[in-house]
Amino acid sequence: MRILLDKFSKAFGAVSVIEDMTLEIGDGEMLALLGPSGCGKSTTLFAICGIHKVSGGRILFGDRDVTSLPPQERNVGVVFQSYALYPHMTVRENIAFPLRIAGKSSVEVARQVDEMAQLVHIEPLLDRRPAELSGGQQQRVALARALVRRPHVLLLDEPLANLDAKLRLEMRSEIRRIQLETGITAVLVTHDQVEAMSMCDRIAIMDAGRIVQIATPTEMYNDPHTAFVAGFLGNPPIAFLRGVVSGDAIVVPQSDVRLPKPNGARNLAEGTRVSVGIRPENFGPAGDVPVRGRISFVETQGRENLYDLMLADGSVLRSIQPVRSDIAVGDEVEWSVASDRIFMFDDKGERI
Amino acid sequence: MNGHQKSWPIILVITILSAPLVLAYAYLFVDTITNSPPGSVVPHEFTLEHWSFLWQTRPGRLSIWRVTLNSLLFATTSAALVVVVSSMAGYVLSRLNVPGRSFFLAGVMLLHAFPAITLIVAIFIVLQMVGLYNSLIGVILVKAAIDMPLGIWLMKGFYDTVPWEIEMAGIQDGASRFTVWRKLVLPQVRPGIFALALFAFLLAWGEFILPQVLAPSGNAQVLSVYLASLIADDNNFDMALFKSVGLFYIAPVLVLFFVFQNYLMNIYGGGTKG
């Protein structure tokens, strides 16, 4: 079902967390609300499910205005960060709880619980209690309980935060599989850009209560609108250089780096300060603009190595390259930047 | 066995210190089933006559079974009242954003610290005015009211440990706030409810001043008052009878402790994370 936040605002007392936010989530779409802690992404989620009352604006499910409906009547499935399973009930009772509240017959309840258990692959665990399950299994139960009522929308509040790295990888694809199989509209709240990029159709990146950019993961990675977005997406993260417009080039002071002006920067005045974002994969042995520096840090990642290159002015560029053993910390090297892949931002962080 | 060698002086000291207590308890029991010659502490005959109060009601007194029933009624009813009110009030104070919440919290704390016995005259007058003086209902209400601040505070503490998400999950699952409380939250605080019930029962079972002042005679007499009346009775002073009734009085308390101590230790299993 299509979800629309129409000029939604939320304030706690005098503190305004979100102001006039408009966000549309398409039917069957999985959208990530991505941002640092305190950016208002969880607040948005809790407003959609009805735990928080909105201070202004409307929330629509389909064409229905649910702004003033209590959570019980919204039919929203929520998976909480801590899963919030009912510890005194078995898995079966946990999943059946929403159906029992709805007053379904026990035959119907049993049928739907089995169906859900099958979907999330927990059939053998139905008679256990939550304390007897692993984190990943609890997560599956929480998903089943959230989905059993066939909600209009599924909300996931940092669902992978409590899992170890390997389980996180597994549950990432599992959640996506279940979402695609059920065709449910879903909103994922996360501060982990990898989760957002790998699981979702679109990402809404938030900062200080505003949506900074909303796009597909690929679009957002290749075309960030602000320095904040560029800095948030990508692992290892993008590196920024401070530059000044000088003639038809951008010069990094106290160094010999001269980057060609990108098209958008044609009419920038001489001496304008800009910041240049260079992703680690666009800096290395291949490229067109040479940069000299000293290796300040090497991080082994197995298949690849991450090198930190300190420039003459003290700023640091990152480069990710296939493992090589000819370079060590302290070496002087000259690598190159692929100048057609760099991003330029003005001093407010807006893309040029 | 170095540890044992080091600890024997401590054990000796503890043994000496507690010996009088153990001896006193032993004699409390021995004296109820034996007779000793005057001036001696060594019993010379076995007898059940001191327990005859169980089947013989003395003139001018209530039957011991009637008094026991009163005590039982008094303790269970006031414990039930305390549990029911505390489990609800504790939840409201812990979770709901009611107006005057901090005022009520402070009030409950103050009432708990307040020496309720200083109100006894006022309570006496109130009970007399509403016609509950010398009735079991009157003492039950007063006792429950006095124990309630502790119960509310205790239950609030238990509710505070229940994860907020469990309630939110229940609400999202379509349950009303009351259903969430009854079906999801209440089971999480079961150890608290049980402990409070036992605690309030024992408090009421051992209560003496309130029934003594507010229901001293007539059909509302409870065991503690009955026991006290035995000493107060100068005409038929019977130390052995007093001990027997005393033993009879503490027996349920001992039984409760022995039966439920493991239950109380056994913290109810469960959690939100694996």
Helices and strands in order:
The complex is a heterodimer of chains A (352) and B (274).
Chain A: E1 3-12, E2 15-25, E3 30-34, H1 41-49, E4 56-61, E5 64-65, E6 76-79, H2 91-101, H3 106-119, H4 135-147, E7 153-157, H5 165-182, E8 185-190, H6 193-199, E9 202-207, E10 210-215, H7 217-222, H8 227-232, E11 239-246, E12 249-251, E13 258-260, E14 273-278, E15 283-284, E16 289-300, E17 304-310, E18 316-322, E19 332-337, E20 343-345
Helix pairs in contact in A: 2-3, 2-4, 3-4, 4-5
Chain B: H1 2-33, E1 34-35, E2 45-46, H2 64-95, H3 101-113, H4 120-130, H5 136-160, H6 164-172, H7 177-185, H8 190-205, H9 209-214, H10 223-232, H11 239-265
Antiparallel strand pairs in B: 1-2
Summarize the structure.
Chain B: This is Maltose/maltodextrin transport system permease protein MalG. The complex is a heterodimer of chains A (352) and B (274). Chain A is α+β, with helices and mostly antiparallel strands and 352 residues long.
Describe this structure in words.
The complex is a heterodimer of chains A (352) and B (274). Chain A has two domains: 3-226, 3-Layer(aba) Sandwich (Rossmann fold); 239-345, OB fold (Dihydrolipoamide Acetyltransferase, E2P), CATH 2.40.50. The longest helix of chain A has 18 residues, at 165-182. Chain A has helices at 41-49, 91-101, 106-119, 135-147, 165-182, 193-199, 217-222, 227-232; strands at residues 3-12, 15-25, 30-34, 56-61, 64-65, 76-79, 153-157, 185-190, 202-207, 210-215, 239-246, 249-251, 258-260, 273-278, 283-284, 289-300, 304-310, 316-322, 332-337, 343-345. Chain A is elongated and about 75 Å long. In chain A, helix 2 packs across helix 3 (106-119). Chain A has a six-stranded mixed β-sheet with strand order 6-7-8-3-9-10, sandwiched between helices. In chain A, strands 13-12-11-14-20 form a five-stranded antiparallel β-sheet. Chain A has a five-stranded antiparallel β-sheet with strand order 15-19-16-17-18, with no helix packed on it. The relative contact order of chain A is 0.12. Chain A contains eight helices and 20 strands. The mean pLDDT of chain A is 89. Chain A has 352 residues and is α+β, with helices and mostly antiparallel strands. With 274 residues, chain B is mostly helical. Chain B has two domains: 2-47, no CATH class; 60-265, MetI-like fold, CATH 1.10.3720.10. Chain B contains eleven helices and two strands; from the N terminus they run H-E-E-H-H-H-H-H-H-H-H-H-H. Chain B has helices spanning 2-33, 64-95, 101-113, 120-130, 136-160, 164-172, 177-185, 190-205, 209-214, 223-232, 239-265; strands at residues 34-35, 45-46. Chain B has a two-stranded antiparallel sheet. In chain B, helix 1 crosses helix 11 (239-265), helix 2 (64-95) runs parallel beside helix 5 and helix 6 (164-172) crosses helix 7 (177-185). The longest helix of chain B is centred in the first third of the chain and has 32 residues, at 2-33. Chain B starts with a helix and ends in a 9-residue tail after the last helix. Residues 266-274 of chain B have low confidence and may be disordered. The chains are: A alpha+beta (352), B mainly alpha (274). The A-B interface holds A 49, 51, 71-72, 75-78, 80-88, 97-98, 101-102, 129-131, 133-135, 137-138, 145-146, 149, 162 and B 163, 165-166, 168-176, 179, 183-184, 187-188, 190, 268-274.
